[in-house]
Specification:
Oligomer: single chain
Number of helices: 4
Helix content: 10-25%
Radius of gyration: 24 Å
Structural class: mainly beta
Mean pLDDT: 75
Strand content: over 45%
Shape: globular
Number of domains: 2
Length: 466
């Protein structure tokens, strides 16, 4: 088939899928027929009103409404638009990509206290057939009901309403970070390497998790909730790896290397990255990750019968998904030889200049000889095995997403290996950095894991102090 004809058929299929989705999303309201998603919230008590709105992140970057409903103790949402959304994705993305459906849940109790949660789910390749019971697990419901977001004593209950969204296409997700400091001139030309590989155990899909920041009425504390999968990818879609080999060079330009966004790396590549920090004891940053699309959706918790009342509480939901080329992820890297000038992406993450995305360190570990650190989420005591890697998007509203697997019992094998070879008379110390915010995940509280390494090189014949 000629290339022009293939392009014409692809455009025709895209237009047909978009038309089908638009028609189903804007059907007039009436008597409910067809499949239903029934959202239960255990433990809310008699007379509590449950309101749920469903949202789908389309391939073109927009967030589409997929239906909403309110009910006593549970909410039954017609799923025809959900099935149309899934069909549009299948026709555009092909096999191996499964989109999630975001549910914004609000519960109003008879005493006026209002609780909120965000949960994203995978309806499955067949979509919704018949009546499907979903909703919060007992652990998630207990987590939500620990603290109300607001109180509304007027008529009716409250529900989440979309207030706006910010979409960015083809942007870097920082998955691996290496901060080098100290006497870097004692590095050999190929001293430090950062190897990044992403896969899951037993062939399970990789899940790009949505993370919600729930902000209560003034005076309350923001709660960070891992909502669930924004997108799931089969294993063979991300079988690629990237190795950054960092070595000191007196002749390298001591400036930020790459464009203002990132430098794209070839698949399964080994990239030479020369570091040349400014002055003795200067720092250098090496970062790597995937190129993806990001979306931050902003919601307002409003009374159903008081739309002019304003926001009882707010929520920002951050989502990310990778860009794929012939079924493989696209990697990127960055070298920043002056991480104090405000230009680099890794610099913004490291210094917490992106919406409270600060990092906390683990204790220092002193090493003499060869330094080899193999980061595996299963070995990280701060996080759940299935939720092993932070994927920051540097948004002020909600700075983090995450990568995990589809089942909590399985392990995300996101392998980030740091190696620094033995140098005569040179000692190292290193520590890991992880996001400071605790997150609520499946009813429990964890920290997001992160493969961010902080490495310091001591002067010759001395060891760094603890």
């Amino acid at each position: 088939m000629a290339p022009a004809r293939r392009r014409w058929l692809a455009l025709l299929a895209l237009a047909a899928a978009a038309a089908l989705l638009a028609a189903l999303l804007h059907r007039p309201a009436g008597r409910v027929h067809g499949p239903l998603l029934v959202f239960h919230v255990p433990g809310v008590g008699r007379g509590s009103q449950v309101c749920v709105s469903l949202w789908g992140w389309l391939p073109n970057g927009t967030l589409a409404p997929l239906g909403w409903a309110c009910g006593t103790g549970a909410a039954a949402v017609p799923a025809g638009s959900v099935n149309a959304y899934l069909a549009a994705w299948r026709s555009l993305a092909g096999p191996g990509v499964e989109p999630g459906v975001l549910a914004m849940v609000a519960v109003t109790r008879p005493d006026g206290y209002v609780y909120g949660y965000a949960k994203s789910l995978l309806p499955g390749p067949r979509g919704v057939q018949g009546v499907v019971d979903v909703g919060l697990t007992p652990a998630e419901a207990r987590d939500m009901l620990r603290e109300p977001l607001a109180r509304w004593i007027g008529p009716g209950g409250a529900a989440w309403r979309l207030r706006g969204m910010t979409y960015s296409g083809g942007v870097p997700l920082i998955l691996g970070l290496l901060r080098l400091r100290g006497y870097l001139e004692h590095f050999r030309g190929d001293t430090a390497s950062l190897h990044l590989r992403i896969e899951s155990s037993r062939g399970l899909p990789l899940v790009f998790e949505a993370v919600a920041a729930l902000r209560p009425a003034p005076g309350g504390e923001t709660r960070w909730v891992v909502a669930g999968p924004a997108e799931a990818l089969s294993l063979d879609t991300v079988l690629a790896s990237l190795t950054i080999v960092a070595g000191y060079s007196r002749h390298a330009e001591p400036l930020y290397q790459g464009s203002a966004a990132y430098t794209q790396a070839p698949l399964d590549a080994a990239v030479r990255a020369w570091i040349a920090p400014l002055g003795p004891g200067g720092d250098a940053l090496v970062a790597a990750g995937l190129v993806g699309d990001t979306l931050v959706a902003r919601y307002c918790l409003q009374p159903l019968q008081g739309p002019g009342y304003g926001c009882l509480a707010t929520a920002a939901v951050a989502m990310a998904r990778p860009r794929l080329v012939r079924g493989h992820a696209v990697y990127w890297y960055e070298v920043d030889n002056n991480p104090e000038d405000g230009r680099g992406l890794a610099e913004k993450l490291l210094h917490g200049s992106a919406g409270g995305s600060g990092l906390e360190p683990t204790p220092w570990v002193v090493v003499r000889g060869t330094l080899a650190v193999n980061y595996l989420p299963a070995d990280n005591p701060y996080t759940a095995p299935a939720l092993g890697l932070a994927a920051p998007i540097l948004s002020p509203a909600a700075p983090y997403t995450a990568i995990g697997t589809t089942r909590a019992a399985d392990t995300l094998v996101t392998r980030v290996v740091l190696t620094a070879y033995e140098e005569p008379g040179v000692a190292y110390r290193y520590r890991l950095l992880h996001p400071a915010h605790p997150v609520h995940y499946q009813g429990h509280i964890y920290r997001l894991g992160a493969a961010y390494f902080d490495v310091e090189v001591a002067p010759p014949a001395t060891a760094p102090q603890r």
